[in-house]
Structures are given as C-alpha cells and as structure tokens.
Amino acid sequence: MIKVKMLVQTTYNGQLLREGKIYEVTTETAERWHASKIAEIVPHNT
C-alpha cells in the first residue's frame, strides 16, 4: 500500500476520493493513477 494525493475527485471501490486529500491505495493503482495524472504519489517521509 502507498499513499497518494488526489489531483481530481473520483470514486474508487464505492468510496468518494476528494481532490487534494491523501489516501492509501495499492502500489499498482497508485502507479496507474500517477501515469494518468489522477493522483501524485506521496513521498514516504511525508
């Protein structure tokens, strides 16, 4: 699992994810969202 900061509002697994908030998702999902510019990966020390 890895933390991401949402760049857009979306739903994921029936949950509303809001723009600007930080959520924990699987690494695979985080990498896909980062590539699609949906979210940015939060560094571990944050």
Number of domains: 1
What's the end-to-end separation, in Å?
15 Å
- Beta-sheet strand percentage? 35-45%
Number of helices: 1
Can you describe this structure?
The protein has 46 residues and is an alpha+beta fold. 20% of the residues lie in helices and 39% in strands. The protein contains one helix and five strands; from the N terminus they run ββββαβ. The radius of gyration is 9 Å and the shape is globular. The two termini are 15 Å apart.
What brief labels describe this structure?
single chain; alpha+beta; 20% helix
Task: Please write out the topology.
Blueprint lengths: L1 E5 L3 E3 L2 E3 L4 E4 L1 H9 L3 E3 L5
Antiparallel strand pairs: 1-4, 1-5, 2-3
Quick synopsis:
With 46 residues, this protein is α+β, with helices and mostly antiparallel strands. Helices cover 20% and strands 39% of the residues. The strands form two sheets. It has a three-stranded antiparallel beta sheet, with helices on one face. Strands 2-3 form a two-stranded antiparallel ribbon.
